[in-house]
Every structure is written in structure tokens, then in C-alpha cells.
């Protein structure tokens, strides 16, 4: 099946009230965000689309009970570990351009963006 644009772009930008994505781009699934997953997987185009849709590059992975939330990694740190230099460059610029928010400091849901 051929797409005229990237399927993620379609999901983020189109639809009616019932089908338009209106979830939290910074939400965690298995302790990581969509941006972190895309960075870990080397998906440069997905990283760019998520950032354009206002995913926050400062969000750290959520840490399990007993681990320090400060030890959580950002998408940039995951990309550096994996050696995806093109994604590192995009995320470094995005971190400079994106204001730092307030993130849950501890407990369940640690590192989640509050605002």
C-alpha cells in the first residue's frame, strides 16, 4: 500500500472528532514515550514528526519503583547510546528550542510531564 505521506503524519494531523489523535504524545508505554521509542529504533522521520507535533524532548523514561527518576534517559540519550548521529543532531536542536517543563519528580508516574 502506497501512502502519499507518512502514516504517522496522517495520524497526527488528520481526522474528525472521533479519529483525530488527541492523546498525550508524552505519555508512557512500558516506561518510555513514543519519541524515545522512535529515537531508540533509529526512526529519524518519526522523531521529526513527533517533535513537530510537540512531543517534549526533555521527558525522561519513567523509572520502576526503587530506581532514581533522575537516572531516566531522554530520547537524546537513547539515540546517543544507539549511535544514531542524525537523530542526535535533531534532538539536540529540539532540546535547545523547547522550553523545559515541570516533570513529576518521584513516585508512580515519575518523570511524566505535568505542564
Automatic annotation (TrEMBL):
The keyword Repeat applies. Pfam families: Ank_2 (PF12796). ANK repeats lie at residues 30-62. Gene3D superfamilies: Ankyrin repeat-containing domain. Keywords: ANK repeat, Repeat. The keyword Cell membrane does not apply. This is Ankyrin repeat domain-containing protein. It comes from Symbiodinium pilosum.
Amino acid at each position: 500500500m502506497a501512502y502519499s505521506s507518512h502514516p504517522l503524519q496522517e495520524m497526527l494531523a488528520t481526522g474528525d472528532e472521533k479519529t483525530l489523535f488527541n492523546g498525550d504524545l508524552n505519555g508512557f508505554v512500558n516506561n518510555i514515550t513514543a519519541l524515545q521509542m522512535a529515537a531508540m529504533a533509529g526512526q529519524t522521520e518519526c522523531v521529526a514528526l513527533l517533535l513537530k507535533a510537540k512531543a517534549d524532548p526533555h521527558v525522561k523514561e519513567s523509572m520502576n519503583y526503587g530506581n532514581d527518576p533522575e537516572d531516566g534517559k531522554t530520547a537524546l540519550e537513547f539515540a546517543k547510546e544507539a549511535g544514531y548521529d542524525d537523530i542526535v543532531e535533531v534532538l539536540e536542536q529540539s532540546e535547545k528550542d523547547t522550553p523545559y517543563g515541570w516533570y513529576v519528580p518521584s513516585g508512580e508516574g515519575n518523570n511524566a510531564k505535568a505542564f
